[in-house]
Amino acid sequence: MDLNELQNFYHAQNKSNKPCFVVNITAEHGIWQSENPLTQSLPLLAMQLAATIFVTRAVYYLLRPLAVPRIFTDFLGGVLMGPSALGLFPMFHSMFPLRSIGTVETVAYWALCCHLFLIGLEFDMSVIANLTRTSKKAIHIAIAGVLIPLITGIGLFFLMNQVPGGEYNPAGSVYFGLSMAVTGYPIVARVLKDVKLLHSDIGRMAMSASLVTDLISWILVIIGIAFSNHTIGGALVAVLSTAGFVLFCFIVVRPALAIIISKTSKENIYSENYLCFVLVAISAFATVTDVLGTNSIVGAFIFGLIMPNRILAEAFLDKFEDFVTGYLLPLFFTICGLRIDIWSLFHNKAYLAIGSVVLVLSCSAKILSTLLVSYYDNVPTRDGFSLGIVLNSKGIFGNFDPSARQ
Questions:
Q1: For a designed S-S bond to 176, which of 110, 157, 254, 349 qualifies (C-beta 3.0 to 4.6 A apart)?
Q2: How far apart are CA 156 and CA 163, in angstroms?
């Protein structure tokens, strides 16, 4: 069998009319016996990973003088890898054949689980426990900043379904609305820290509002994933079982972790065994929530959230963050970019018009909702506008859509 045949770059139909893939892990003889090593799974993944890191890093260093956030440059690099830019060239187009997408997506979503674990680590449970002390203004801004963009996004989704050829799964409306409604609490904290507003009045209000928004977003994501993948009865079982697992983690697992950490560490000195334990635990928690009917990222996030020792959490962030966000996570943005073809918008004026409206509303919906609540709560218009801009920091949730893998 010739591994260089076209059928092995994409797929071949067998007699049962089902796709049959030729997947070998690595090449045995390489180019010396006229075999293309890139037809094998491992060399192809290595090349895809190397190209992705190179492109995303190049975009990051080019835009670094403009103080552009890393998550934006990674996403822009992913779009450039897709059919909107570099994918137009044969070399880059053949770099992501259909037969390799399963492997790339598996690595990408594993990186996403690790990234959500790190986001959970950045949440301070003492802040969450003191939510009752959060000002009513911040709570009002958070609730309006979720509901108004969520409703706007769902409405736009069904408007897009009226365009000829735009019939989509109705379950996608939830994720479309959430992509406009979410706010990334850790991202907001980093932005405020960079501009030295973290301890100002507007900074504290933005932190409180983003924390409440992020918690509401997580609840909506769990519910949305369950109802999009199951019947109503199955969705209720998935939501209730996941809620029970979360309560079990906070009531039982978190105190147990605190005891284990206090017994096995001395003077805040932690061995490399803790890192191995964390990698195993991320996999276990991700598997549990996936089995319960929600999504792997929920379990990874919950495990990061229940970490009881802040010093240990900071140690994990120092050791783990660069590898995940700099080495593995760009693959997730590349997968997102492969689904985006900007040039196709120009072939349909209706899509171009709707895309422009979505682009404007995705930013303005949260700003307008914040301004409305600010006017109601007697917050200065300038502060309300600034809050709306800061709360548009969406983080990874702005790109995540579990239905895209179906």
A1: 157
A2: 11
CA distance 142 to 210: 7
Distance CA 278, CA 288 (A): 15
Tokens of 304: 């990061």
Q: How far is CA 26 from the centre of its chain?
A: 30
- The pTM of the full predicted model, rounded to 2 decimals, is 0.76
Separation of alpha carbons 326 and 114, rounded Å: 12
CATH class of 104-405: mainly alpha
Domain boundaries, the chain: 1-39, 104-405
355: number of Cβ within 10 Å = 14
**Torsions phi, psi for 19 (to 5 deg):** -65, 135
Q: pLDDT at position 9, please?
A: 41
Calculate mean pLDDT across residues 25-31. 59
CA distance 346 to 66: 29
CA distance 300 to 45: 24
Give pLDDT tens digits for 308-356: 877 777 778 888 888 888 888 888 888 888 777 777 777 766 667 766 7
Q: Residue 161: helix, strand or coil by DSSP?
A: coil
Give the DSSP per-residue string, 327-376: IITHHHHHHHHHT--GGGGGG-HHHHHHHHHHHHHHHHHHHHHHHHHHHH
CA separation for the pair 187, 22 (Å, rounded): 42
Q: Which residue has the tokens 């049962």?
A: 16
Q: Amino acid identity of 346?
A: F
Residue 285 pLDDT level (bands cut at 50, 70, 90): very high
Q: Give the burial string for 45-72 (b: 16+ CB within 10 Å, else e).
A: beebbebbbebbeebbeebeeeeebbbe
DSSP 278-310: HHHHHHHHHHHHHHHTS-HHHHHHHHHHT---H
pLDDT digits over 68-124, tens only?
777 788 888 888 888 888 878 777 777 887 777 888 888 888 888 888 888 888 776
Cα(185)–Cα(211) distance, rounded to whole angstroms?
A: 5
